[in-house]
Amino acid sequence: MLKQTLINNWATAISEIAIEEKKVELFTKTLEELKEVFILNPDVINFLSNRSITISKRLEFVDKIFKSEIDILILNCLKLIIERESFYSVNYIFTAAIKKLWESLNISKGIIYSTIEIDKKLIKIMEEKIHKKINHEIKLENKIDSSLIAGVRIEVANNVFDFSLKGKAEDMKNSILENRK
To answer: Per UniProt, what is the membrane topology (predicted)?
Structure first.
């Protein structure tokens, strides 16, 4: 993995291009989709990071796969990341860039912990409900946490909303301990 400062530099450059070109929402959506593609297909990252394969072959591969699918500016960013031999950290770069782009749109990122994967429609509903509570636009990412037993826990903008069985048990325990005093 690249050093965090280099990841941040890449992310800053990508987000500045998006802001300058007034394509923040397009970049955010595309980077999220590309990140998902690379997560589901780690062999692509391995191929595009492989220094024993010529850079021209790797760039040709990216052109064939993505040229008609993504904005030329994002395509050029991908190519530059390959040329600078940084592609093995592409998902970290995209994650940091997405965060910067959300910040430029005044959107906070949050995490919704659950015992099973949550449907995207349900996540949207939860985003709207939390938005009403904290009066701030949010984007939730689902992470699995089997220690919750059941329910969900949402962490966003320095707030924690715990609707898990584990959280309820902790609340009951604390209440009993307080009443003993």
So the answer is: Peripheral membrane protein
Same domain, yes or no: 54 and 69: yes
Do 87 and 23 lie in one domain? The reply is: yes
Distance of CA 121 to the CA centre of its chain: 17
**Which residue range(s) make up the domain with 53?**
4-103
* Strand 137-144 to 107-114 pairing: parallel
The H-assigned helical ranges of 67-119 are 72-83, 90-104
Could you tell me the two tokens for 166? Answer: 């584990």
Q: DSSP character for 69?
A: T
Residue-by-residue pLDDT tens, the chain, 181 positions: 668 888 989 999 999 999 999 999 999 999 999 999 999 999 999 999 999 999 999 999 999 999 989 999 999 999 999 999 999 999 999 999 998 998 888 787 788 888 888 888 999 998 888 888 888 788 888 988 878 778 888 888 677 878 776 766 777 777 787 777 6
**CA-CA distance, 44 to 22, in Å (whole number)?**
29
User: How far is the C-alpha of 24 from the C-alpha of 21, rounded, in Å?
Assistant: 8
Give the amino acid at 66. F
